[in-house]
């Protein structure tokens, strides 16, 4: 079964995430993908990726992904955070980060770490297409 990867980006980082996803589309297609609402919609529209969309972040999407982390249905999270932005749902964002810490779930909050995460042998699909 493919690993499940959550993809999330704040508004100020959505263009960066789409660009990252373009660069790594072949790898991303080997994961089961889940995303917050607007991020997931963009990934589908721009890259035709198959993504399970949760609610938008401000409407509880981060909390839904946090629940997936706690329940072991989400194996890793890429979350492009905008450090310049103000987010009305900041407590939800903290909940998601805390869930990842509690569960020791890989959480990449910038592009360079996301690249490492995607190619990590414990998370990433192996070259034959099955998942470690
Ligand atoms: O707000 C977000 C993360 O905190 C992202 O939500 P959207 O993908 O719905 O914009």
Detail the topology: elements first, then pairings.
Layout: E1 4-9, H1 14-23, H2 25-28, E2 32-35, H3 37-47, E3 51-53, H4 61-70, E4 76-80, H5 90-103, E5 107-108, H6 111-119
Parallel strand pairs: 1-2, 1-4, 2-3, 4-5
Helix pairs in contact: 1-3, 4-5
The structure holds 1,3-dihydroxyacetonephosphate.
Features:
alpha/beta; Rossmann fold
Description:
The chain is of the alpha/beta class and 132 residues long. It is built from six helices and five strands, in the order βααβαβαβαβα. It has a single domain (4-119), classed as Rossmann fold (3-Layer(aba) Sandwich), CATH 3.40.50. It has helices spanning 14-23, 25-28, 37-47, 61-70, 90-103, 111-119, and strands at residues 4-9, 32-35, 51-53, 76-80, 107-108. A five-stranded parallel β-sheet has the order 3-2-1-4-5, sandwiched between helices. Helix 5 (90-103) links the parallel strand 4 and strand 5. Helix 1 (14-23) crosses helix 3 and helix 4 packs parallel to helix 5 (90-103). 36% of the residues are buried. Bound molecules: 1,3-dihydroxyacetonephosphate. 1,3-dihydroxyacetonephosphate (13P) is lined by residues 8, 10, 36-39, 56-58, 61-62, 87, 93. The site of 1,3-dihydroxyacetonephosphate has 13 residues, from helix 3 and helix 4. It comes from Longimonas halophila. GO terms for molecular function: methylglyoxal synthase activity. InterPro entries: Methylgl_synth, Methylglyoxal_synth_AS, MGS-like_dom, MGS-like_dom_sf. Belongs to the methylglyoxal synthase family.
């Amino acid at each position: 079964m493919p690993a499940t990867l959550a993809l999330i980006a704040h508004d100020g980082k959505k263009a960066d995430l789409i660009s990252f996803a373009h660069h790594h589309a072949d790898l991303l297609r080997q994961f089961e993908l889940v995303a917050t609402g607007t991020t997931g919609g963009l990934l589908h529209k721009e890259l035709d990726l198959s993504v399970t969309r949760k609610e938008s972040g401000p409407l509880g999407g981060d909390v839904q992904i946090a629940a997936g982390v706690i329940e072991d249905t989400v194996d890793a999270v890429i979350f492009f955070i905008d450090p310049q932005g103000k987010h009305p749902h900041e407590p939800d964002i903290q909940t998601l980060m805390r869930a990842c810490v509690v569960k020791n779930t890989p959480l990449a909050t910038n592009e360079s770490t996301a690249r490492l995460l995607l190619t990590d042998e414990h998370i990433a699909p192996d070259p034959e297409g099955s998942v470690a």
